């Protein structure tokens, strides 16, 4: 047994559903008891009580630092690690100029393994313990991702990106090979320990109707998998795709027609949606994944967080590495706040922290397993130093509430704020 001490914030309810400050329990001197053989949380409570009850436990005392569930990045492209922060393009040009040439290298299993290892080093140093990633069209890129996560004991999600048109020759599969390769990879990795396979059509413009149909069938045959794709990220993209699927009512309807819209669908971006699309997404229970640093970096638009949550949509939070400009979920929360401000709907720190933990967990169907500090949840944790730089420290020093104390770290913090990361109860 291990007893991890510090401040704790535990969400009891969805902060969008009522008073955000009443949605979480804060304890200034608290502890999390972790069973390091099962990797789960046994108990959370006052530090002194737990020290007495668990006197044989190994104590790791983080002082005033804040213990939270590890961050959950609900949409990323690990193969784009090497081209993050590439200058000056909008989506389609950015894909063709920077992304596709880099993704073409992932047929080389050695290169894929090297990048996967670097990627997980980066996300863990930023306090992210679960990632949901696109790989490339190459099965090697999927093997590299899952093998590396397995080595580290992480709960991760991912899948082979499928594209059979509007991509370079060396980055296209076919409807049949996408189905066959995805099926084989799914059988190999889905449910292996903490790994889950995600059926992954990149987005409608890079798939033929035949490929979308094949992947819809694969999903129907494997209903416990998630499905991830992109939806309505840029206006040019929407015009382009509607020209390819003239019979569809709108972009959402394209996925719907091929059996790719139901609960468990993770729709990246989802910025430019009509009222009909919003109603349909809500009706089926799909999840919308907000990628704020990407949406400002590539110039895509301002996601309607407040409106979408108010109407009861499931929303997760993500970096969208490397269209997103950061590996950090702290920076991602800050960008979420900034976009909320630009829309005239300021978000409370409770909203931001919930989105990066329990909210993303619910969006990926893991709300009973990760993303909360509660008994029986998996012990993936991040410990935040709330005074990690002089600028943050002088502001947090004036705080009168935990929310005021944590907000400077959300807005100005980076990997220096991450005092420790735990995966299944083990410090990494
Ligand atoms: N749409 C299709 N592929 C991508 C991608 O790799 N990144 C982003 N941001 N949008 C996409
Ligand atoms: Zn993406």
TrEMBL record:
Cofactor(s) named in the record: Zn(2+)
Cofactor, how bound (note): Binds 1 zinc ion per subunit.
EC number: 3.5.4.3
Keyword annotations of the record: Hydrolase, Metal-binding, Zinc
GO molecular function terms listed in the Swiss-Prot or TrEMBL record: guanine deaminase activity; zinc ion binding
InterPro entries for this protein: Amidohydro-rel, Guanine_deaminase, Metal-dep_hydrolase_composite, Metal_Hydrolase, Metallo-dep_hydrolases
Reactions this protein catalyses: guanine + H2O + H(+) = xanthine + NH4(+)
Alphabetical list of NCBIfam families matching this protein: guan_deamin, PRK09228.1
Recorded family membership: Belongs to the metallo-dependent hydrolases superfamily. ATZ/TRZ family.
Name of the featured protein: Guanine deaminase
Species this chain originates from: Maritimibacter alkaliphilus HTCC2654
Taxon lineage: Bacteria, Pseudomonadati, Pseudomonadota, Alphaproteobacteria, Rhodobacterales
């Amino acid at each position: 047994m291990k007893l991890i001490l510090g401040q704790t914030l535990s969400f009891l309810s969805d902060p969008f559903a009522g008073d955000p400050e009443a949605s979480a329990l804060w304890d200034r001197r608290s502890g999390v008891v972790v069973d390091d053989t099962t990797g789960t949380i046994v108990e959370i409570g006052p530090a002194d009580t737990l020290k007495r009850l668990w006197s044989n436990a190994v104590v790791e005392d983080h002082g005033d630092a804040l213990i939270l569930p590890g961050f959950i990045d609900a949409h990323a492209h690990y193969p784009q690690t090497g081209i993050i922060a590439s200058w000056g393009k909008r989506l389609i040009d950015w894909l063709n100029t920077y992304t596709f040439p880099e993704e073409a290298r992932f047929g080389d299993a050695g290169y894929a393994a090297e990048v996967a290892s670097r990627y997980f080093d980066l996300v863990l140093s930023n306090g992210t313990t679960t990632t949901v990633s696109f790989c490339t069209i190459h099965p090697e890129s999927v093997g590299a991702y899952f093998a590396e996560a397995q080595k580290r004991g992480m709960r991760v999600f991912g899948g082979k990106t499928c594209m059979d048109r509007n991509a370079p020759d060396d980055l296209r599969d076919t409807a049949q090979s996408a189905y066959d390769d995805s099926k084989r990879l799914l059988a190999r990795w889905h449910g292996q320990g903490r790994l889950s396979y995600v059926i992954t059509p990149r987005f409608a413009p890079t798939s033929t109707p035949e490929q979308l149909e094949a992947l819809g069938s694969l999903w129907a045959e494997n209903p416990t998998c998630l499905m991830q794709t992109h939806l309505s990220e840029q206006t040019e993209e929407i015009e382009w795709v509607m020209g390819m699927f003239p019979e569809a009512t709108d972009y959402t309807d394209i996925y719907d027609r091929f059996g790719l819209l139901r609960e468990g669908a993770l729709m990246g971006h989802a910025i430019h949606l009509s009222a009909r699309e919003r109603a349909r997404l809500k009706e089926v229970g799909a999840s919308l994944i907000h990628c704020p640093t990407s949406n400002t970096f590539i110039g895509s638009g301002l996601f309607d967080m407040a409106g979408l949550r108010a109407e009861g949509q499931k929303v997760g939070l993500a970096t969208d590495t490397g269209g997103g400009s950061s590996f950090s979920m702290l920076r991602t929360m800050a960008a979420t706040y900034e976009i909320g401000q630009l829309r005239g709907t300021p978000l409370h720190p409770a909203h931001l922290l919930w989105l990066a933990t329990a909210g993303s967990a619910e969006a990926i169907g893991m709300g009973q397993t990760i993303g909360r500090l509660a008994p029986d949840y998996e012990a993936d944790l991040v410990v935040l130093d709330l005074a990690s730089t002089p600028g943050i420290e002088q502001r947090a020093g004036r705080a009168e509430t935990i929310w005021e104390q944590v907000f400077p770290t959300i807005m100005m913090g980076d990997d220096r704020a991450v005092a420790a990361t735990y995966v299944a109860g083990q410090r990494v």
